[in-house]
Amino acid sequence: MTNKNKANINIKIESTHCFLVKDGKVLLGIKKRGIGWGKWNGIGGKKNKEDKTIVDTMIRETQEEIGITPLEYKKMAVLKFYYLADQKDNQKISIFVATKWKGKPIETEEEKPKWWPINKLPFYNMWEDDTHWLPGVLSGLQLRGTFIFDKNWKIESFKINTIKNKQNH
Questions:
Q1: Does an H or E element contain 63, and which?
Q2: Which DSSP symbol is given to 36?
Q3: Are 65 and 101 in contact (CB under 8 A)?
Q4: Is 3.90.79.10 the CATH classification of the domain at 3-162?
Q5: What's the rounded Cα separation, in Å, for the pair 81 and 83?
Q6: For the whole model, what pTM was predicted?
Q7: What would the pLDDT profile of 98-155 be if each residue is shown by its tens digit?
Q8: How deeply is 89 buried, as exposed, middle or buried, from its count of CB atoms within 10 A (0-12, 13-18, 19+)?
Q9: How far is CA 61 from the centre of its chain?
Q10: SS3 label, residue 56
């Protein structure tokens, strides 16, 4: 498969990541099972049939995975991921940053949350693509991106665009 025909592959999974930001720190969760096991990432997961919107998904997932309810948040990015190794995992992820929430982050069966200084993120134990978009999102940029991973789950190519207008995407 080449980059030119990747658009012919359906994305059947929609999911979210939410990054809680406070006092120069960001809350990441280390996945305790499933895709991404053992990696630090934003808090989130897949949209299900009960979720009317992707915002519903983000709120439900943060409640389930770390016991908090986002109150003030903004969608900062929409990223599409194509996996040549297993195309059923292709997905579109909406990235949110939350600056106000209800509750205190707790460890669950899914995630173990930890606060990290924004300038010292554990990229050595995160998804390879995170270095390309997460610093921009945490600095306030709104982005759209596409990543293609080869059969060894390494980035084959990617493209990121900054969204100039402030409308939802």
A1: helix 54-66
A2: T
A3: no
A4: yes
A5: 7
A6: 0.90
A7: 999 999 999 999 899 999 999 999 999 999 999 999 999 999 999 999 999 999 889 9
A8: middle
A9: 12
A10: helix
